[in-house]
Amino acid sequence: MSMDSLKDRLQSSFIVFENELKEETRSPLHSIRRQAMKRFEAQGFPSVKLEDWKYTNLKPIVKGDYTVFADREQGLEFSEIKRFFLNELDTYKIVFVDGRYSSWLSSTTHQNYDICTFSAGLRRHRSVIDAYFSKAAWGERSLVALNTAFAREGAFVRIPAGKVVEKPIEVMHISTGSIGDSMNQPRGLIVLEEGAEATLIERHQNLGNARVLTNSVTEVFAGAGSHFHYLKIQNDSPTTALIDHTSIVQERDSRVDVGTFVFGGRFVRNELEFKLEGPGANAGMIGLSLVDADQFVDHHTGVDHVAPHCQSDELYKGVYDGKSQGVFNGRIMVRPGAQKTNAFQQNHNVLLGEKATVDTKPQLEIFADDVKCSHGCTIGQLDEDALFYLRSRGIPAHEAQALLLYAFGEEIIAKVPLPELRQRLSRLMARKLNVDFELSL
What we know:
Blueprint: H1 3-21, H2 28-43, H3 59-62, H4 78-81, E1 92-97, E2 100-101, E3 114-117, H5 118-124, H6 126-132, H7 142-149, E4 155-159, E5 169-175, E6 182-184, E7 187-192, E8 197-206, E9 212-222, E10 227-235, E11 240-250, E12 255-264, E13 267-276, E14 282-291, E15 296-305, E16 311-320, E17 325-334, E18 341-351, E19 357-366, E20 371-380, H8 384-392, H9 397-413, H10 419-432, H11 437-440
Parallel strand pairs: 1-5, 4-7, 5-8, 6-9, 7-9, 8-10, 9-11, 10-12, 11-13, 12-14, 13-15, 14-16, 15-17, 16-18, 17-19, 18-20
Antiparallel strand pairs: 1-2, 3-4
Helix pairs in contact: 2-7, 5-6, 8-9, 9-10
């Protein structure tokens, strides 16, 4: 199936989707869906001719006979997916199986705050969704438009003013493979009102061997003085492709920290956009990628400093082995009125395989004169002197290399706020480096 064939299937599926919505088609939200579908029809899938997709070729990914909607709910037992959760902690859970919400596997709430699904939000909090939906994630991006057109299910989190969610929220998207090759388009909406606090962990997991293409969009709105930790664990199977777009809007004195950890998956593209609209807003971004074989990972980040006295800190690291490919494109915009801005960006990469490649492009666009901004990137191999030092003390070559790489990645993992998740990530990293965890400690 070509890109055009999948586009045709999606256009046909949208007609079916509208028929299923019935009276919902008369709502303002569906008017946004229709506008979004027209945008996607006009633009189609992005190609390497676009500057933002110069190093990211979607053609091999969209050539698949994907099922767009699961026609039935697949049954799963918690024991089949237990290993993917943070079982050391009591957490809220929002679980989707083949794009459908699984109440059996989930643990949600409407007491004190709303931790549920987008479809439930449409029924219970329509005014909230109408106020925020598609206000952050829109722009000119055709894949965001495609997701918007089919927006029906995903995570919905609303934390009222002053409320603190006492335990983490886990959002899990499971693909069973029982419906063959499939395409999922989850839509998330997260709203933290003034002074609210929450931590959310998100994961996509394919249990079968079928090809899975996920086009995910999440919008986050952080009210004045709120604090949100958003952690993405991407360690999927070699038959999966993930395009993940997150748009975040921050008000006065809010803080949002996003951590993205890529260990598996055939194709991963993360688009992360911040808009700092209120004075004193603080945005933090960390990322760690450990990939090998023919894996591909692309991080596109953007921070728009609109208000004065804001800060953004960005640190991404990558380790590339085999024939893997990496892309990093980080853009910081400082608007004319955004005086007293502090913005820092770093991207560091280690190439292990002779055929591994990384394309990195840090960007600063500054239109204010009273700011502190810096960016930088490095691409290289492991320090030979450090390797020699470890080898001279009796450590075998493979383990010496793994220790250096572990130390390289540990700087990122150490910034994760949950000790249980830090331990899980350390184990994933050690497993990816093929070393004994106790040695890594």
